[in-house]
Structure formats: C-alpha cells, structure tokens
C-alpha cells in the first residue's frame, strides 16, 4: 500500500476539522454584524434567554438518562459470549454530548443571527439573505463537522483497540469494533428524539396559544409585542426548528453512515486498504459532501429586491449535489475492488456508484414532490385556500386529504429507490444510497436553519415597529423558509426509510436470523404491534401540545384580562410566564414518547426473540414513514394556505385578506397542522431509526447462537462449506439462493 492508502483512514476526521474551522469563521462574521437599536437588542435578548433556559432544563433531565443508560450499556458490554465491550458506554456518552452540542451550536447562532437579519433587512433583501443563510450555514457545517469528526475519530480509536495487525476485516474483532461504535449512534439518536419532541412541544404550545388568542380573539398580528406569548413563540422557533432539528439531522447523519459501515464489515473486500474500503467509503463520501457544501454555499446570493430567494437556495443545493455525485465516482473507483459480494449478491464498484446516484435522485425527487404539496401557489395549497371559504371544518377536511394524498408519489419514489439500489448492489447498495443522499447534509441543514432565523427576524421587526418594507423582506425570506422546511422534512423521512432498512439488514445479520417469516403467529403479532407504535407516539406528542397550548391560552387570556393597558401599549406583558409554561410542559411531556422508542425493542427482543423484534421493526418502519409524510405535508400545506391570505387570495371572484372569515378558518387549519409538521411528523424519522439502532445494540444479547459468526446461515452444511472454502464458488449467479448454493457446495464436497 502507498502512504496515502495507509493513512486515508486518518484523513476522514480532518474533513470534520475543516468544517468546524469554517463554522467558527462564519459564526464570527455573523457576530460582527450590526444588531440594530436598543429595543431590537432587548427583544432578541428575551428570545436568547428563553432559548438557553429551555436547553439547560432539557440537558439537566437528559443527563440522568445518559448516566443510567451508559452504566447499563457498559455492564452489558462485559457479559460473556457477547461481541461488545464496556467502551460502548463511552461511545454512547460522546454521541449524546455531540448531539447536544450540535443543538447548542444551532441555538447560539440562530439567536444572534435573527436580530442581525432584521437589521440587515432595513438595508436590502440581499443583505438579509446573506446574514440569515450564513447563520444557517454555521449550524449545517457545525452539525455535519461534529458527526464526521466524532464518527471518524472513534472508528480509528476502536479499530486500533480491537483489531490486531493482520486480523480479517470480516472477523469477530472488526464486528466488535462496529458494535461498540453503534453506541455513538445510539447516544446521538436518543438525544435527537428527546430534543425534537421536547422542542416541538415547546414551539407549538407557544405558537397555538399566540395564534388562537392573539390573532383570532384579539385580532392583533402574529408577532405583535402586545401578545404575551410572542416571545415564547419566537423562542420556540429556536428550540424546535433549530436545536431540535440540529440534533435530529446529526443523529440521522451518523445513523446513515453507521448502517453502511455495519454492512460493509460483512464484505470480504480484496482492496488496497486492507479490506477496509467498504467501511471507509460512506465516511469518505460524507467528508467530500462537507467540502462541496462549503464550496456551494458561495453560490447562495441574490443581486436585487426582485431576485428569487428560492432560486438562490436551489442553486447552492444543486451545486453541492452535483459536485458530490461527480466526486463519488472517483472515490468509489479509487477505494473499491472491481467485484464484491454481500450475502450472496455479487456487485461491482460501478454498481455501487449507481446506487449512490439512485440515492441522490430519490432525495431530489422527494424534495420536489414535497415542495409541490406544500408550496404557496401550487394546486394542493390552493385547494385548501378555496375550501376555507366554507368554514373551519372544510379547511380541516381539505388539509387532511392533501396530507394523505401526498404520500402516494413519495412512497412510489422510495419503493423504486429501494428496488433500484438493491438491484445494483444488494443491501450495501441500499445503505450507500442513503449515505449518498445524506452526504450534503451540511447544505440541506443550512437551507433548513435559515428559515427559523428569518421567521424570528420578522417577529423582531413586527415587535420593534420597523417600517413596512422591512417586514416585507423578512416575510419573503420566511415564506421561502416554510417551503424549505417542508422539503427538508420530506428529505429526512426518505433518508430515514433507507437507513432503517440498512439497519434492519444489519440487525438480521448480527442477530443470527436468515429471514423474518410473517406466517408465524408471533412474528405477525409483532408486525401489527410495530405498525401501531407511530400512532401511539403521535397521539402522545399531539396530546402534549394540546395540553400545553390550553395552559398557554388561559395564561394569555388572563394577562389580557388582568393587566390593563396591554392593548394600548401602556403596559408590558409578562412574557416570562408564557416562556415558563412552554419550558415546563415540554420537559415533562417529552419523557413518555421517548421511553416508548427505547423500551419497546428491549421488551420485545428479550421476551420474544430477534425474529419477532424484526417483525416489529418492519411494522414501525412502514407505518412511521407514512405517518411522517402525511403529518409533515398536511401541516406544511395548512401553514402556507394561511400565509396565502397575507397577499390576498381570490375565491369565487372575491379577494380575501387577513382578518376575513376564510382567513380565520385557515388559522384554525394551521393551528391543527402545527403539531403535525413540527412535533409528531418530524419525530417519525427519529423514532424508526432509534428503534432500529436499539435493536442493533441488543442484537448480540438476543442472537441465535452459532459457532460460525461470519455466516448468516446457521446450518451445519453452510458452515461446512465456509470451512472448506467452497463458499467462494457459491454465488447467486449459479441461479439459486445463497442457502441453496451453499447446500450445493456441501453436496459437491
């Protein structure tokens, strides 16, 4: 091997270091921008204080969970006949800390960039976009940089600890390395779920309270300084749409790379990297995606007030995707041998690249389809607008129908993507397709995070009483941000589906089962139980928003009633009381949904065994993907139907604006859709991945034991073939299944 080939493994964490250095530079630039007058700074200070108060309260509760879970994981790693190690607890803690740090980075920069975007909007739309998108890019690069640095560094450390020189990559030592590394992903996804659910409950409790009492009852604008819940609402944009989303995509990013590494470990690769190529490839693609995301961020700019913000974001996004697709070709050709096989499926390096392209295409199509169903001016949103003219009920009916209908095309695309990627490179193809899709996470997250920053900027402009043109500029950014948020959620759920399938395949291998037979009564029962879990999870999350929103509504009504002079600007609302309601409710209510995701795999796996748990995971994945798409798209469509009234909409030849009866009906729809799109819907992708990761972590403990740990087929004839080295001639190209081929080999012997 050349020097470069020997040391490629050490280059991967360097990609993360580069991203974090650029993050620091961009964060410094944002901090140096003008924050506006004293009133603007004061309002932004309230938002920042509320956001940090929530994070500290959340971290305090989650720290107990992390300590207890780490102790249990460390103990489980010391049990005999289990291919794990107590270091899995260390990986878990690091994953949890990195996930929390990812959320903190996003929160910190968002609460600085919001007021600076407002001030920039006083000069031009171009400058406002520059500040808000740079703020978003700090989060995107920070999250992806931490993921690549953490995963790459831990892999190097565990590889050195567990794999002696000359050991086989498909041997037990490397299996232990990857099993211990799953702790990092478990820590990341655990924190992500609690952060996403807790942040979602916070933001929607405040949003619903602010909307129902402020806009509908009091007839004041959404971000009016007289609304007691307006600060809590703006804090919620940060804790839910920024910190929660940051932890969410950090977990998704890590899980996707890890799933590919788990399957890559099973490939006996004859490459120039000591057999590590299939394991290194997903990390290398992630690192390249980081670099090309940094380059493509330069293209996100506009020249004047009439330029399209959406087009500027699309240019940056597509640039990163195309550059990553080109670079992936050379990475695949350089790393991988000409032919490989995994579980009886033989494929070439070219086929692996084609699977990556399938993943990129699926991601792009999912974003386009989601944009169609949720964007203003498109048919689905316009249909909800029209149905608002006949009342609140028909608006709700229209939104539900749009959400359900919006699952058809994405599922067809997803199914085609699974089939296509498997066709090219088997299960490794499915996993690497997800890795390719997530390679440009830094850019995707930058585009996502810019939306909440712009939303906050508009709120500060409204509360500060700035000129109309300032609010028009921030509204322009906010409208685009709503669409990018919806498309980002569609992208996330698609990647979660592919990742969960790869994790599922890894679980089957580690657990020592060759198939999941739904003809068995217990497996079929597990399938139904799994299908039910996303519904229960969603019900808990939505109910939590409802209870917290009721408390918020009562508090806002009390302040309007008991504090004279609020409506006349003579008295200041008690913002801190509304912030406290959202904080306490979100911390309290996030525990039960999170416990379901963590405990169900444990209960089913240890009680009924790996095959029933496999059936449960299949049910959760299918049901969760559909629920995630339905809720996120319905909520996004309701939201933009409401926003359509701000510029006026034509219904049956008559134009209606804010304050009209159809607009009030659209506000009701948006209120129903809020927990759909920002609480339960986005949590579905974390739910299905977290349950798969928990199952993968416990798989060695519930596995069907066999003397031959390198074979998925646990029969004596299969072992006979491998031991006699006949397995190399037993491929699916002989026109039979892996099991039949191995049996044929034994008969030859």
TrEMBL record:
Entry's Gene Ontology BP terms: sodium ion transport
UniProt note on regulation of activity: Requires K(+) for maximal activity.
Site features described as Determinant of potassium dependence, chain residue numbers: 485
Primary enzyme class: translocase
Transmembrane segments: 7-26, 62-80, 86-107, 128-159, 279-300, 312-332, 352-375, 396-419, 425-447, 491-513, 525-549, 590-608
Record's function text: Sodium pump that utilizes the energy of pyrophosphate hydrolysis as the driving force for Na(+) movement across the membrane.
Name by which UniProt lists this protein: Putative K(+)-stimulated pyrophosphate-energized sodium pump
Species of provenance: Solitalea longa
């Amino acid at each position: 091997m050349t020097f470069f080939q020997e040391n490629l493994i050490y280059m991967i964490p360097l990609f993360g270091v580069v991203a974090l250095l650029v993050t620091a530079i961009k964060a410094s630039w944002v901090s140096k921008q003008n924050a506006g007058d004293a009133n603007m700074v004061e309002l932004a200070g309230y938002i920042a204080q509320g956001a940090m108060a929530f994070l500290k309260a959340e971290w305090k509760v989650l720290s107990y969970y992390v300590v207890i879970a780490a102790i249990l994981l460390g103990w489980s790693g010391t049990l005999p006949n289990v291919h794990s190690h107590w270091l899995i607890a260390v990986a878990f803690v690091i994953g949890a800390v990195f996930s929390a740090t990812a959320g903190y980075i996003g929160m910190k920069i968002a609460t600085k960039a919001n007021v600076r975007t407002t001030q920039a909007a006083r000069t031009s739309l171009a400058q406002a976009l520059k500040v808000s998108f740079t703020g978003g890019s700090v989060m995107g690069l920070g999250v992806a940089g931490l993921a690549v640095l953490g995963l790459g560094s831990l892999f190097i450390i565990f590889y050195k600890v567990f794999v002696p020189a000359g050991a086989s990559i498909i041997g037990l030592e490397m299996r232990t390395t990857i099993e211990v590394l799953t702790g990092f992903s478990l820590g990341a996804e655990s924190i992500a779920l609690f952060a996403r659910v807790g942040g979602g409950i916070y933001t929607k409790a405040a949003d619903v309270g602010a909307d129902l009492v402020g806009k509908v009852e009091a007839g004041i604008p959404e971000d009016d300084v007289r609304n007691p819940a307006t600060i809590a609402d703006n804090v919620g944009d940060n804790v839910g749409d920024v910190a929660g989303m940051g932890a969410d995509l950090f977990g998704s990013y890590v899980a996707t790379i890890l799933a590919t590494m788990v399957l890559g470990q099973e490939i006996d690769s004859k490459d120039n990297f000591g057999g590590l190529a299939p394991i290194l490839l997903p990390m290398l693609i992630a690192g390249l995606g980081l670099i090309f995301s940094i380059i493509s961020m330069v293209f996100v700019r506009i020249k004047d007030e009439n330029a399209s913000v959406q087009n500027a974001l699309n240019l940056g996004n597509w640039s990163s995707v195309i550059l990553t697709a080109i670079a992936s070709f050379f990475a695949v050709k350089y790393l991988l041998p000409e032919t490989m096989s995994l579980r009886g499926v033989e494929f070439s390096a070219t086929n692996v690249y084609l699977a990556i392209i399938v993943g990129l295409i699926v991601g792009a199509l999912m974003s386009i389809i989601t944009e169609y169903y949720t964007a203003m001016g498109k048919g689905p949103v316009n249909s909800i607008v029209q149905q608002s003219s006949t009342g609140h009920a028909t608006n709700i009916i229209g939104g539900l129908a749009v959400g359900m209908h919006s699952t058809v095309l994405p599922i067809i695309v997803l199914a085609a993507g699974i089939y296509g990627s498997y066709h090219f490179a088997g299960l490794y193809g499915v996993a690497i397709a997800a890795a390719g899709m997530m390679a440009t996470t830094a850019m995707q997250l930058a585009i996502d995070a810019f939306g909440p920053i712009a939303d906050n900027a508009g709120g500060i402009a409204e509360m500060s009483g700035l000129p109309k043109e300032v609010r028009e500029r921030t509204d322009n950014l906010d409208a685009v941000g709503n669409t990018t948020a919806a498309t980002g959620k569609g992208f996330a759920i698609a990647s979660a589906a592919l990742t969960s399938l790869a994790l599922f395949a890894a679980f089957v291998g580690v657990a020592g089962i060759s198939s999941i037979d739904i003809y068995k009564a217990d497996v079929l029962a597990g399938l139904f139980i799994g299908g039910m879990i996303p519904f229960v999870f969603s019900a808990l999350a939505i109910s939590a928003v409802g209870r917290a929103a009721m408390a918020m509504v009562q508090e806002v009504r009390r302040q309007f009633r008991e504090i004279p002079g609020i409506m006349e600007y003579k008295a200041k609302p008690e913002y801190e009381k509304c912030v406290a309601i959202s904080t306490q409710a979100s911390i309290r209510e996030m525990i039960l949904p999170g416990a379901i995701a963590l405990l169900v795999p444990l209960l089913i796996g240890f009680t009924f065994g790996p095959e029933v748990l496999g059936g449960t995971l299949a049910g959760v994945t299918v049901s969760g993907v559909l629920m995630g798409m339905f809720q996120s798209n319905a909520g996004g469509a309701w939201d933009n139907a409401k926003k359509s009234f701000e510029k006026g909409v034509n219904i049956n030849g008559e134009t209606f604006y804010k304050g009209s009866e159809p607009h009030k009906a659209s506000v009701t729809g948006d209120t129903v859709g809020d927990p759909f799109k920002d609480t339960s819907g986005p949590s579905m992708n974390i739910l299905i991945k977290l349950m798969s990761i928990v199952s993968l972590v416990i798989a060695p403990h519930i596995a069907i034991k066999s003397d031959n740990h390198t074979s998925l087929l646990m029969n004596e004839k299969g072992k006979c073939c491998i031991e006699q080295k006949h397995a190399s001639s037993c491929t699916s190209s002989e026109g039979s299944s892996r099991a039949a081929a191995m049996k044929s080999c034994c008969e030859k012997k």
